[in-house]
Write a structure and sequence with these properties.
Blueprint (H helix, E strand, L loop, with lengths): L2 H13 L12 H4 L29 H54 L5 H14 L2 H34 L6 H23 L2 E5 L3 E5 L5 E4 L11 E5 L6 E5 L2 H6 L4 E4 L10 E3 L2 E5 L5 E6 L4 E7 L20 E5 L2 E7 L6 E7 L6 E10 L6 E4 L2 E5 L7 E7 L4 E8 L7 E7 L4 E6 L2 E10 L8
The structure holds 2-acetamido-2-deoxy-beta-D-glucopyranose (NAG) (6 copies).
Length: 457
């Protein structure tokens, strides 16, 4: 790695270190507060209670409206707290970096002005260092803008909270519609801000951590990115064809320490290692077909199945390692995707966004990358990343951005400790890559880089 990119990764790692899930509030049923509760002279409820069970107030439409506003504000407050903690912590780090940078710049100018022969060498060294660091300055400035935005949100939410609290005492003194608009507006902006803070471009992959050693050379394993907090069930599929038994481990801890699992028998065997578990269902490619099946674990039944039109199957357009890996299903921040190839696209990779309920294609993108020469691929924030191989000196070297339908060549190396990789998928909840590495279940953390431009806010 170049020293420059090392430095970048360092800063970016700090910027992106918080998991998306932490931004979401915990169970609101538990975290709500009672603001006030009172009865009028006839015993009619006039409360503006924000509590889990306040059905007694539901007759009063205005109170209901208020309650919803308060709930929204409450939700926002929690989100902002997380954002705030993160930006404050990161800002300290970023500010320290900035001081160092500016100091270096000053020193550099002094040296430049003095023109002394004997420091020519020193001058060169500092100049080189400066050139490495210069791109960081705009990043620092962008980051400070993020922090300022969070402060602004905080002030607005505080204002709304106090306005809403005043309402307890003086019902009807405020314009509800205006209040409602302010809450909606704030909510929308906050959501957009968080989405941007949470997403970004892949800039680094950590060293792998081996979670477990089990199974054959080929297989797949995963957790459900939409599982509720505390549900860390692990789903495990050994082999790439002619198997139909999915193992369920009660938790990640169980998976690591035991071989205690429940088996689910699928109605049809699978093909390849492209399965994905999403919102309580497994999506997989039915053996010797281009049919996608959605199987609901709760009801133990197929809730939908549909052919993926034009998709090559049966080792027609597999990944470089073979193994019937023609159709790869995956999930990112934006939902469910299928990655495959078609004759129409001359065997090059096609990316399709799927409706998770109907399995219909919402939109497709055709790339210029041959599927058969791709090692593996995964999607993060709507960008497809392709590796150059599946053993030894592997790197992510091709990226296709669905937002702009453009591609670029990149160079992000990662370790494949046990040689053969037969599955590599991103989990947006953990911000991790799950890999099946020659009978080892392995995790990688990813570093994502985002810049919020002020004109996007
Ligand atoms: C508050 O957040 C919870 C959990 O995310 C959600 O179910 C609820 O609808 C939110 N309330 C409002 C008013 O947005
Ligand atoms: C809240 O903001 C409004 C206008 O945006 C302002 O009139 C009001 O004084 C503010 N309230 C508080 C408590 O800051
Ligand atoms: C598309 O996404 C990539 C990576 O996330 C980003 O670098 C690029 O600026 C985006 N392009 C547009 C047009 O939004
Ligand atoms: C295996 O899991 C079951 C239920 O999931 C539990 O009752 C049992 O005690 C576990 N056995 C071991 C050895 O952990
Ligand atoms: C997940 O499933 C639940 C019910 O099974 C459904 O209400 C919810 O909309 C689903 N979420 C997504 C993102 O599909
Ligand atoms: C990823 O990062 C988290 C938080 O820093 C850490 O707990 C975890 O062990 C890391 N996982 C890997 C695979 O490096």
């Amino acid at each position: 790695m170049q020293p420059e990119s090392k430095l970048w990764s360092l800063v970016l790692l700090v910027l992106m270190g918080t998991e998306l899930t932490q931004v979401l509030p915990a169970n609101p049923e538990e975290s709500w507060q009672v603001y006030s509760s009172a009865q009028d002279s006839e015993g009619r409820c006039i409360c503006t209670v924000v509590a889990p069970q306040q059905a007694m107030c539901s007759r009063d439409a205005r109170t209901k409206q208020l309650r919803q506003l308060l709930e929204k504000v409450q939700n926002m407050t929690q989100s902002i707290q997380v954002l705030d903690q993160r930006t404050q912590r990161d800002l300290q780090y970023v500010e320290k970096m900035e001081v160092q940078l500016r100091g270096l710049e000053t020193k550099f100018r002094q040296v430049e002005e003095s023109h002394k022969q004997n420091i020519a060498k020193q001058y060169k060294a500092i100049k080189a260092k400066m050139e490495e660091l210069r791109p960081l300055i705009p990043v620092l400035e962008e980051y400070k803008a993020d922090a300022k935005l969070v402060m602004q949100f905080k002030a607005e939410v505080q204002n709304l909270t106090s306005v809403l609290s005043e309402l307890q005492e003086e019902m009807g003194a405020y314009d509800y519609e205006e209040l409602q608009n302010r809450v909606s507006d704030l909510e929308e902006r906050l959501r957009a801000c968080m989405q941007k803070l949470a997403c970004g471009k892949l800039t680094g992959i950590s060293d792998p951590v081996t979670i477990k050693t089990s199974g054959s050379r080929f297989g797949s394993w995963m957790t459900d990115p939409l599982a509720p907090d505390g549900d860390t069930r692990v789903w495990y599929m050994d082999g790439y064809h002619n198997n139909r038994f999915v193992r369920e481990y009660k938790s990640m801890a169980d998976f690591v320490t035991s071989d205690n699992f429940t088996s689910h028998r699928l109605p049809h065997p699978w093909s390849g290692t492209g399965q994905v578990v999403y919102n309580g269902s497994i999506y997989y490619n039915k053996f010797q077909s281009h049919i996608i099946i959605k199987f609901d674990f709760k009801t133990s039944s197929i809730s939908k199945s549909r052919p993926l039109d034009y998709a090559g199957y049966n080792n027609m357009y597999h990944y470089a390692w073979g193994g019937h890996s023609d159709i790869d299903l995956m999930v990112d921040e934006g939902g469910l995707w299928a990655v495959y190839a078609t004759n129409q696209n001359a065997g090059n990779i096609v990316i399709s966004k799927l409706n998770p309920n109907t399995l219909q294609v919402i939109k497709s993108w055709t790339t210029n990358h041959p599927k058969r020469s791709a090692g593996e691929s995964f999607i993060i924030c709507g960008t497809l990343y392709v590796t150059n191989g599946y053993t030894g000196g592997t790197k992510v070297y091709y990226a296709f951005h669905t937002n702009s339908s453009t591609y670029e060549y990149i160079d992000i190396p990662f370790q494949t400790t046990y040689s053969h990789i037969s599955m590599l998928d991103y989990n947006p909840k953990d911000r991790a890559l799950y890999a099946w590495n020659n009978g080892h279940q392995v995790l990688y953390n990813v570093t994502l880089f985002h810049v919020i431009r002020s004109d996007e806010l």
